Amino acid sequence: MLTLPPKVTPRAWERLSEIGAQAQGKALRIAVEGGGCSGFQYEIALDDPKEDDLVLEGSGEKVVVDSVSLPFLADAVIDFADELIGARFVIENPNATSSCGCGTSFSI
């Protein structure tokens, strides 16, 4: 079965440009770690790309996903939401069977 890489929305690329991630030599790292109230949680940070990362590029910016996290993020959508309660990168993950209200914790 073919595994599709995550997709990044134009809003997310635009926000990365506003932050100036590439100008700082950084990429947006999306990782999945054990923990959170649902079993897994997303870690989102500006970081240096590493050799075994999947690198997604757009608008002069980069989003990176490590090889361990990649299967958990297959066909996910990385977006940026600017809402009354705050602004943040969000992940719409079709692999998650349930998620927590915080938006960073999920189960598969």
UniProtKB/TrEMBL annotation:
Q: Which GO terms describe its molecular function?
A: 2 iron, 2 sulfur cluster binding; 4 iron, 4 sulfur cluster binding; iron ion binding
Q: Which PROSITE patterns match?
A: HESB
Source species, domain of life: Bacteria
Supply one GO BP term. iron-sulfur cluster assembly
Matching SUPFAM superfamilies: HesB-like domain (SSF89360)
Pfam families recorded for this chain? Fe-S_biosyn
- For the Core domain, which residue ranges apply? 7-103
Q: Which residues cross the membrane?
A: none
The record's InterPro entries line, in alphabetical order, gives: ATAP (IPR016092), ATAP_core_dom (IPR000361), FeS_cluster_insertion_CS (IPR017870), HesB-like_dom_sf (IPR035903)
Protein name (database record):
Putative iron binding protein from the HesB_IscA_SufA family
